[in-house]
Write a structure and sequence with these properties.
Elements (H helix, E strand, L loop, with lengths): L9 H12 L1 H12 L18 H10 L5 H9 L2 H9 L10 H19 L24 H18 L21
Helix pairs in contact: 1-3
Length: about 180
């Protein structure tokens, strides 16, 4: 295999596969995020950008997680593949930006708070890319009885703390007589 023979280069085949599977998404992402034209890859000398298969691979690795190509790749993953990815050690903050992860966490905390105040139904965390959904765990009768006993002890000691009688300062009071 000579210096110009690309058959043994794994990057060449993975870039060719990427281009074959996601041509429009990759062309868009390289143009928008890198200001480069993917078509340079087939022009003499790599065109104005000196585009090579290696450069496409490097640019792809640097694209943000929200880009069209990476989103399309994630959308093709099966639940089993997502579960496998979720088991691996994360490097960085995953396909979402730090801000998106923090917003999802805030939303989850608000949902937990609302559920504690009996405002909403069952809590469902925001699904995050690359993280398989957790299956609901059912509790047995003994565990349920233990939780009921704890709740009764807590209510006997502290009174009703469920939040059902809580009046928030920003919520209109129904017994105020105004309106």
């Amino acid at each position: 295999m000579g210096p110009g023979d690309r058959r043994g280069d794994r990057r060449f085949f993975s870039v060719e596969r990427l281009i074959a599977d996601y041509p429009k998404q990759l062309e868009y992402d390289l143009r928008v995020h890198c200001r480069l034209d993917l078509r340079d890859l087939w022009r003499d000398g790599g065109g104005a950008s000196n585009m090579t298969h290696r450069l496409v691979a490097v640019l792809f690795d640097g694209l943000p997680g929200e880009c069209l190509t990476k989103t399309a790749i994630r959308d093709k993953l099966t639940d089993e593949e997502l579960a496998e990815l979720a088991k691996k050690d994360r490097q960085g903050h995953g396909p979402w930006s730090r801000t998106n992860l923090q917003l999802a966490e805030i939303r989850d905390y608000l949902a937990i708070l609302a559920r504690g105040m009996r405002v909403t139904g069952d809590f469902q965390p925001v699904p995050r890319p690359g993280v398989a959904a957790k299956k609901k765990r059912r509790i047995g009768p003994a565990q349920l009885e233990h939780l009921r006993r704890l709740a009764a002890e807590h209510e006997a000691q502290y009174g009703d703390t469920s939040g059902r009688g809580l009046v928030l300062p920003f919520a209109p009071r129904s017994d105020s007589g105004t309106g």
